[in-house]
Amino acid sequence: MSEMVGRQIRIEGIVQGVGFRPFIYRLATEMNLTGSVLNDSQGVLIVVEGAPSVLDSFCSAIADELPPLAVISRMEVSDLPVNDAADFRIIESKLNQNRVAQIAPDSHVCPDCLRELFNPSDRRYRYPFINCTNCGPRFSIVTNIPYDRPLTTMADFPLCADCQMEYEDPVSRRFHAQPNACAECGPQLSFADNTGCFVAVEDPLVEAVNRLRAGEILAVKGLGGYHLVVDAENDVAVLRLRQRKHRDEKPFAVMSFGVEEIQAFCHVSEQEERLLKSVERPIVLLRSRDGHSLSPSVAPNNKFFGFMVPYTPLHYLLLEQFDALVMTSGNQTDEPIVFENSEAESRLEGIADCYLQHNRRIHIRTDDSIARILDGEPVLYRRSRGYVPRGVMLTTEQPCVLAVGAELKNTICLTRSDRAYLSHHIGDLKNQQVVDSMKQAVHHFQGLLEVKPTMIAHDLHPDYLSTHVAGELAGELPLVAVQHHHAHLSSCLVDNGQRGPAIGVIFDGVGYGTDGNIWGGEFLVGDLNDFQRLGHLAYRPMPGGDAATKEPWRMAVSYLNTVFGSELPELEVFRQIDSSALKLLLQMIEKGINSPLTSSVGRLFDAVAALIGLRCKVSYEGQAALELEMLIDGDSAAEPAYSFLITETDGMLQVDPTPMIRQLVNDLAGQVTAAQISARFHNGLAQMVLDVCRTIVVEQGRLPVALSGGVFQNRYLTELTAKLLRQEGFEVLLHRQVPPNDGGLALGQAAIAGAIAAP
Q1: What are 312-345's pLDDT values in tens digits?
Q2: 640-676 in b/e burial notation, b at 16+ Cβ within 10 A?
Q3: Given pLDDT bands bounded at 50, 70 and 90, which one contains residue 99?
Q4: What architecture is the 5-90 domain classified under in CATH?
Q5: Residue boundaries of the structural domains of the chain
Q6: Which of 238, 266, 509, 571 could join 602 via S-S bond, C-beta 3.0 to 4.6 A?
């Protein structure tokens, strides 16, 4: 006994509801250690006794052999007196006032549960809500911490004797699996018609499959909300869904049973396969195959499909009978995803023909996440289910900040100590329902994290709804207005574990500038505290203001007018424009009526897309730029780059696209293809970024270059720009944990406000 020592091990991170305590129990008993393990409001607390060398091995094994869903963010080991414990036990959860426990994201159904799902001899055979400590719902059903069943929506379902036995057995895979259930005691499926009235059918799942086969639109309640579902190979059904949802051309997400099935429709690399099969199960953008059988209406004018594999047992059961199903968010356009049965029938009225529902409450809605492989690594375009509420490491501890994000692709962010917690995707703040969803997220995250913000950060734009919400929530708290593009730069810095300074190349559609103009083609040098604008795309009028974002031909006219005056060249695009509308637009530009100035690269993309006759009007944000990128083929890198004129006035670099516009117009007259023009434009932008960065480092010294903003969702442009910069010796910072678009903006806002407030 003289060799025995005691240790206390405090572990923080995602360690509750992920099988961590039974993992510790098995590890300790295998090593003949004694003591106890419990959940509390900080995480997991272990008290253990044994020989020093064995305890060292025990601590190493904890870090090396984690359960699939566990993440350790902090592990502290301290000595304790020996207490002569007789055995090792799992004891009940304890609350304390200092709550720092982290909730796990929702997880896909694990291989063990999947085998049980399709095993006729298993008691959970074909049970659509099968789960264990290694998988199943987490974030979407949690109402408070610590993560115990009474504080989840599973409190509605008392465990049967068999499930209770598993729940209490430390060696069971379902020990303290809070969503544990079976067909006897757990959630159940039901079927409803288009009016929402319950329909008595022998098997709701079979009825749903039959309705899908008949071409109907099915609303399915899933993990974080409703999907609208149709057979992806049924063109009539897909078109009907587009018409009813008023979603003219924006791509639909698609789900297939597995990667093998997806390969019939798309090319799938090893990296893309790993991303598809990752624990987060995002929608992954994949290049389509020639001759595939999906409806052309799934993703019009797009070479990529957004595919995912099933992440719930219900999805697997549905996909048994289909090669691919459209799985798009269950909502009206511009509204948040539907997640409550009581609202589904009213909000999806006129869209869904029938409903496959269940009675497990969803506490917080979560859309599917979207990702792709870019520059050899995954990048998120939408960070939601599977990733939230996982924290992002800050570079240092800071005061608690609430950041309310952007107007579009809104997310909110709360910081606690040295972690930032971004919310699920909330959406575009265009109506009160989305604003209400944002406020709900603020309240929910404050409860889960047990924090109260000391300040609220928001966008500099005074008219954004997010800015108004910040004012409503602030009360006596200080408000911190953060410039949009500085927030993008800071978001990228934090994403890469850096504080700066760095060169920020921030290209997007719209951001309110400190001079009152609309920024979007910015070259900044800054850190988390401050920034300096050193260059930008030359200002051009944006005739009609917001109307120009929906009608790219307006920006085409604006750019042509700057280069050629009122005598515009005769281009094919003008055959689509009413002559009186064109005349009125030129007068608006000339007189400066409703024509704010913009430096936006996003609007330059719009202009180019319109000039080549690709897109004069758009039905969703970024459509013109996306379709312009889709024109690029394999030989594009060989195309000559269009030129940009870089000048300096009063210390500010101006990037004038006039030479590029002239070259493009000449190419149109010379019968150069649209694909070639697109490649030359992209190549020119990448070369221009390199040229500006070369100029900046002459005065600023060699700094990393952060690429951020929605334009850097463009894979061709991002990869080429990064390649050129690296060839010149620049360190390139790209987004990985949060999106480059406005979905990652709240992280930057929170980091800036925290840095300003920190002593």
Answers
A1: 999 999 999 999 999 999 998 778 899 999 899 8
A2: ebbbbeeeeeeeebbbbbeebbebbbebbeeebebbb
A3: low
A4: 2-Layer Sandwich (3.30)
A5: 5-90, 103-186, 189-358, 391-496+741-757, 519-525+534-733
A6: 509
Is there a contact between 35 and 46 (Cβ–Cβ < 8 Å)?
A: yes
Strand order across the beta sheet in which 253-255 lies: 189-193, 354-358, 218-221, 226-231, 325-329, 253-255, 304-308, 283-287, 370-374, 377-382
**Alpha helices, H only, 670-736:** 674-700, 715-727
Neighbouring-strand partners of residue 292:
none
Q: What angle do CA 376, 426, 709 make, to 5 degrees?
A: 40
**Cα(366)–Cα(110) distance, rounded to whole angstroms?**
20
CB 692 within 8 A of CB 653: yes
- Kindly report the backbone phi and psi dihedral angles of residue 199, in degrees, each rounded to the nearest multiple of 5, phi listed first: -115, 125
What single DSSP character describes residue 676?
A: H
Same fold, 5-90 and 189-358: no
The CATH class of the 519-525+534-733 domain is alpha beta
DSSP string, 361-379: PPSS--PPPEEEEETTEEE
C-alpha span between 125 and 563 (Å, rounded): 69
Percent of the chain with pLDDT over 70: 99
Q: What is the pLDDT of residue 303?
A: 94
At residue 489, the 3 state secondary structure works out as helix
Q: Retrieve residue 745's tokens.
A: 């903006």
CATH of domain 189-358: 3.90.870.40
Q: How far apart are CA 33 and CA 4, in angstroms?
A: 10
Q: What is the pTM of this model?
A: 0.93
Kindly tell me the sign of the dihedral angle through the C-alpha atoms of 176, 178, 180, 181: positive
279/70 Cα distance (integer angstroms): 11
Give every CB contact of residue 626 below 8 A, 6+ residues apart in sequence.
302
pLDDT tops 80 at residue 2: no
d(CA 612, CA 674): 6
- Burial tier of 700 (Cβ tally within 10 Å: 0-12, 13-18, 19+): middle
Q: What is the mean predicted confidence (pLDDT) over 296-319?
A: 97
Q: CATH classification of 103-186, choosing from 3.90.870.30, 3.30.240.20, 1.20.58.100, 3.30.70.2660?
A: 3.90.870.30
Kindly state the DSSP code that residue 713 receives in the 8-state scheme: G
DSSP SS3 for 733: strand
pLDDT single digits (tens) 630-658? 999 877 778 999 999 999 988 899 999 99
Alpha helices in 526-657 (DSSP H): 547-550, 553-564, 579-591, 601-611, 623-630
What is the mean pLDDT of the segment spanning 453-471? Answer: 95
Where does 391-496+741-757 sit in CATH, by number? 3.30.420.360
660 in Cβ contact with 683 (< 8 Å): no
Distances (CA, A) of 358 to 148, 221, 319, 635: 22, 7, 18, 51
pLDDT computed for residue 1 by the predictor: 45
Residue type at position 503: I
User: Judging by beta carbons within 10 Å of its beta carbon (0-12, 13-18, 19+), is residue 698 exposed, middle or buried?
Assistant: exposed
Those residues whose C-beta lies under 8 Å from the C-beta of residue 120, and which sit 6 or more positions away, are none
DSSP character for 185? T
The letter for the amino acid at 144 is N
> Mean pLDDT across the stretch 41-45?
83
User: Could you tell me how far CA 230 lies from the centroid of its own chain?
Assistant: 24
The Cα–Cα gap between 471 and 459 comes to: 12
- The closest of 530, 529, 403 to 455, measured between CA atoms, is 403
Cα dihedral across residues 430, 433, 437, 442: positive or negative: positive
